[in-house]
Amino acid sequence: MSTIALIDCNNYYVSCERAFDSSLHGVPVVVASNNDGCAIARSSEAKALGVKMGDPIHLIRDRLTKHGVVVRSSNYTLYGDMQRRVVAAVEEFASEVEIYSIDETFLDLEPFANRDLVAHANAMRDQVRRWTTIPTCVGIAPTKTLAKLANAAAKKNPLFDGVADLRDPVLRTWVLDRFPAADVWGVGRATAAKLAELGITTAGQIRDMQMKQARGLGTVVLERLVAELQGVAASAVEVIEPQRKGMAVTRSFGTPVDDLDTLMGAVSQYAMRAGEKLRSHGLVAGQLTVFFQTNRFRSDARQYQALRRMTLHPMTADSLELLAAARRGAEAAWRDGFAYTKAGIMLDDLVSADLRPRTLFEGNVERRDRLMTALDEVNGRFGKFTAVPAAQGFRREWRMRAENRSPAWTTRIEEVPVVQAR
């Protein structure tokens, strides 16, 4: 039987903000999405005030001001770097590590199974706290689904004090019989409704389903879920990340865009970033889709959504080739007289760069590969957008609103916090 843990950072985005700004401790804090649109992270204090995930900031602005809620713009550069530090802190406590999301990591604890794993997990939490200041909870169980459920129990039930070890069948049954079926990892809204019609409302009742019944109700996905709740692991910790099938770079604009040159500046940036992401994963793409659209939530404005798919032949991760394809698509789809508020690049038909099919008349691929490597190194060393194509420009009027973004405390030398001794 496997021994798997899930360590989850509490209120992660808020905790990252508090790591460098002590004035945020003990006060309600909300982190807003791109363009400062919606609440995507809330401190415990903000949750207590009734701020819900996804609440539009402009609709609750008065309530936020009344209760002294601090709003921070999302700072994904900071959050990503802090994730790297959290993972570094937990690596010595597990034989294998699988990053599930920016704030959740699965750990293989099988080599440590004979230890007191609650003490082991608490030592790991202490190290994360010392290295990053970020509070965490840990769930331990024989399968990933049970570890996810154990983590939720550790976070919500004070009896566990931040660590829930559900390897004990009696304790596991006690938790499963009190855990809502709709909150089980992998149970969607439609499946939860079907389960409720059968009177299945707890995780324990899902565990007790017949396999044939589970497959008939929710296909093989629910069948595997039942097995995992019974302690039969459907998969171990994945050391090798599964190959991605698609990739996208999309953004909403800070202000509406109504001319092609400005739009192309944004599309150019997204195409360059898409190429950088492809290269970082060792992939090439066979198809590029460029799209841009008006604000579909405004009933008083003219609406238009443009989308063009371009075949990439040969398959490529060359940012300049992606940019050329995106430009052709954007120019073909452009319509005057509209105020565009969002655009993006989507890449499909991804394969490993080593396995890409060759073409008879392709140019000097090695030379272009060296150019892209040099471009990545320059922007990696001196900061994003140091070297850009002329079409992208430097003014970037389309960039997202981020009026309350914290500094890049850990990734930009001029914004590293300075401590003075007196």
TrEMBL record:
Per UniProt, residues of the UmuC domain are 4-188
Report the InterPro entries cross-referenced here: DNA/RNA_pol_sf, DNA_pol_Y-fam_lit_finger_sf, DNA_pol_Y-fam_little_finger, DNA_polymerase-Y, DUF4113, Rev_trsase/Diguanyl_cyclase, UmuC
Question: Among the entry's GO cellular component annotations, what is one?
Answer: cytosol
Where does this protein come from, organism-wise?
Sphingomonas zeae
Would you tell me the protein name for this molecule? DNA-directed DNA polymerase
- Using the UniProt record, name the top-level EC class of this enzyme in a single word: transferase
What does the record give as the reaction this protein catalyses? DNA(n) + a 2'-deoxyribonucleoside 5'-triphosphate = DNA(n+1) + diphosphate
**Gene3D superfamilies named among the record's database cross-references:** 3.30.70.270, 3.40.1170.60, 5' to 3' exonuclease, C-terminal subdomain, DNA polymerase, Y-family, little finger domain
Q: What does the UniProt keyword field contain?
A: DNA damage, DNA repair, SOS mutagenesis, SOS response
Q: Which family does it belong to?
A: Belongs to the DNA polymerase type-Y family.
GO molecular function terms noted in the UniProt entry:
damaged DNA binding; DNA-directed DNA polymerase activity
Could you provide one GO biological process annotation from this protein's UniProt record? error-prone translesion synthesis
Q: What is its EC number?
A: 2.7.7.7
Report the domain of life of the source organism: Bacteria
Physiological role: Poorly processive, error-prone DNA polymerase involved in untargeted mutagenesis. Copies undamaged DNA at stalled replication forks, which arise in vivo from mismatched or misaligned primer ends. These misaligned primers can be extended by PolIV. Exhibits no 3'-5' exonuclease (proofreading) activity. May be involved in translesional synthesis, in conjunction with the beta clamp from PolIII.
Instruction: Name the Pfam families for this protein.
Output: DUF4113, IMS, IMS_C
Quaternary structure, per UniProt, is: Monomer.
**First and last residue of the signal peptide:** none
